[in-house]
Write a structure and sequence with these properties.
By secondary structure, this protein is mainly α. Helices cover 80% and strands 0% of the residues. The protein has helices at 3-40, 43-71, 77-89, 97-106, 111-139, 144-158, 160-170, 177-180, 184-189, 191-212, 220-234, 246-257, 262-294. The chain has one domain.
Length: 296
């Protein structure tokens, strides 16, 4: 078997095992209390958070469409919306490749366009997320070298096209990076889709914590940091559907650094996953209805 595949499987399994062990240790010690917290959350809080999360999903789907439009001027919005929404659900198939494959198949885009669009969709939101990680590291007094590494990654990601173009010219590469990746100016122009999505997701998470579980000291900045850092860490769960387990363990850990009790933190993580999944299903239904209306 390929060494790279073996490494991914071992790394993914190890990450998932550590996450599940961490979550189980908290649940096993306080399951009765945690169940009470879950039951105490008003249904209207869950409904509001689902709506906010679904709206954030729509912003992300607009970003996906605009990325595809740069690569293929014939890209269709209704097809792109449906492809993005269904592709999100396919994340729950281990390996994470299925979602990207389904997207470009539903859009009838070429393999090249599908691959490049997926790369850009990953890179663009990563920039504000890396900024949040740096803020978290500074406020949490992490070792300076770690903060420097993430700062370097932020700069590298933001200037990825000019750096890639320079390398390709240096090595006489035939890859046209100017047509594949976004320039710093284009990246900034896409923030009109990225920032609203992040704000809505952050509000959704904040609503769970502050209103649903009455954590008055928790603020919006902490909500964003918790949500998006856990999202990055969830990507380490290479074999877990949708990062289940790893993302939740990361939420609990980050919330605990903000002084939130672990029993409440694990409740927040569980509700957040339920909200995310339901909102993704809602996005699929809305996209399908819009697609049917567009092609009547």
């Amino acid at each position: 078997m390929n060494k790279r595949i073996v490494f991914k499987q071992v790394f993914g399994f190890s990450t998932l095992l550590v996450a599940i062990t961490y979550l189980y240790s908290i649940w096993f010690s306080n399951s009765t209390v945690i169940k009470q917290y879950i039951i105490s959350i008003p249904i209207e809080v869950v409904v509001v958070t689902i709506i906010l999360s679904a709206l954030a999903g729509l912003c992300n789907s607009l970003l996906w469409f605009n990325i595809n439009l740069k690569l293929d001027r014939t890209a269709n919005f209704s097809k792109s919306l449906l492809a993005w929404s269904i592709g999100r659900l396919y994340r729950y198939i281990p390996g994470k490749v299925a979602g990207y494959y389904v997207r470009h198949k539903l859009q009838n885009s070429s393999t090249k366009v599908g691959l490049v669009a997926s790369i850009n969709e990953f890179i663009l939101p990563l920039i504000p997320v890396l900024l949040l990680v740096i803020i978290y590291l500074i406020n949490s007094n992490f070792p300076i070298p770690i903060t420097i590494v993430f700062s370097f990654l932020l700069l590298l990601t933001f200037f990825i096209r000019p750096i890639s173009s320079f390398i390709s010219k240096k090595w006489d590469s035939t890859i046209e990076f100017d047509k594949l990746l976004f320039s710093p100016t284009e990246i900034i122009s896409k923030f009109k889709f990225i920032v609203p999505a992040m704000m809505l997701h952050g509000l959704s998470f904040l609503f769970i914590v502050k209103v649903g579980l009455d954590e008055k000291s928790f603020n919006f900045a902490q909500a964003l940091i918790t949500l998006y850092i856990s999202g990055i860490i969830g990507q380490l769960a290479l074999i877990a559907p949708g990062g289940i387990g790893v993302r939740e363990a990361a939420i609990v850990f980050v919330l605990s650094t903000f002084g939130i009790n672990e029993n409440i933190a694990i409740t927040i993580a569980a509700i957040s996953r339920v909200v995310l999944l339901i909102s993704e299903v809602l996005n699929v239904l809305l996209a399908y209805l819009y697609f049917k209306m567009a092609y009547k």
